[in-house]
Amino acid sequence: MTAVMWFRRDLRLEDNTALKEALESSDELLLLFHVNTDQFLEEGSLNQAGFFKSVRTLQEEIEDKGGRLQILYGKLEESFQKLKDRCPDWTDIYVNRDEKGYGLKRDKQAGKLLNEMGVTAHGYHDHHLHSAQEILTNSGTPYKVFTPYFNKWKEKQKPDKITVNWNAEKIIKDQLFEEDQKQFEEFLSQQPNLESVELGTEVAHERLSEFIESHLSEYDDARDIPHKDATSRLSKHLRAGEISIRTVYREVMKAEASKSRETFVQELAWRDFYNMIYATHPNQKEQSIKEDFRQIDWDNNEDNFRKWAEGKTGFPIVDAAMRQMNETGWMHNRLRMITASFLTKDLLINWSWGEKYFQKMLIDYDAASNIGGWQWAASTGTDGVPYFRVFNPTTQSERFDKNGDFIREYVPELKGVTGKKIHEPSKLTEQEQEEAGVVIGQDYPEPIVNHKRSRELAIQAFENSKKAAGKSE
Questions:
Q1: Is the pLDDT of residue 473 over 60?
Q2: CATH number of the domain at 128-161+200-280, please?
Q3: Which one of 36, 83, 361, 393 is most buried, counting C-beta atoms within 10 A?
Q4: How would DSSP label each residue in 151-166?
Q5: 28, 210, 218, 267: which is the annotated catalytic residue?
Q6: What is the CATH number of domain 1-126?
Q7: What is the pTM of this model?
């Protein structure tokens, strides 16, 4: 009899619940990754390129350890039928479950199909420290506000790391799906080039160690400064499961207790919190959680959206942030808040437009955290920023990129600008522009909106939506 370990977003051979159980419970084990063509993103997606580079990295690691990761390529039903035809003795499958979003929908579809095939599915909680149903209010309902959630989260015992006893002798090593592997290789060759992006479990551990040794102690103070490499940069590894959240938590907790360690652990709790929010609000990718703000009269100007996406708004901190993401597939967290606030409040463009653009471009894209962050910034989500609190991109820039170091790195047109006007280059005199080697309106754009006026319009739009929601109740 044959068992299958189905990897999804748990691309590692260590501290992996389903893999541990699969190895211990089977005599013959097929390691599988299914490239689901229904999940493909649009061309040019750095998110997609990064994820499948992680899959390829895992495949190489398994080969180095004397095994083989089989690739199935195509739609779910056709692929699994092909697997059953090729392995008629297939009886069990092991997975780390998804609790929300497309993953949950896929698991329900797969569960029905597997049941019809007579295959027993074994599912485990693995992606988060606590599942979506684990931390509830005293009345048994999900939390809506983070702080009380975090207070209870802190008191809960955290899971230990899991020991996986790798045994290459159990792994099926023959190439069973040669055509699918070729399709996968062809697909990889068409993705954006990410040669400079290092992925895989080994890299993830190196990054974790470096962060704990060199940056954790200053995390609370330095994490908001974009030009400093002071954040963990683990998000791209966690999204693909190249390192487990248990490993990250346990290693961090070995460090000396400090305010910075507490702040970082709080970020891990936010990850669990947003997972719970998505599980309890399954429509949140398209629909604002707060009913009061489901009738906002968004401007949704496509030209302004394009300028935002390309980093050509005339607001240097916004433009630098967007260019960083477009070039590297990553954006600093403080900048995610600034760019999201700018799109939703200054440009009055629906947050879901921005969320989908981030989905395309972020290598560390995690649906629950990304949607949660966008709805937080747009004031439409649970425990979001108040709608009347609108980030001023210029003062945010002056505060978090005081000397303009980050701006100059990603907006080279402004490299020659000195002093505070790096944050508002439209205020440069003609002489200052000549000295800086930049012509505003030609080399770098004028601001596409007036922030003060935009703030007033945004607040009015949100208040109008509240009134409309009240009338419709």
A1: no
A2: 1.25.40.80
A3: 393
A4: HHHHHSPPPPP-----
A5: 267
A6: 3.40.50.620
A7: 0.96
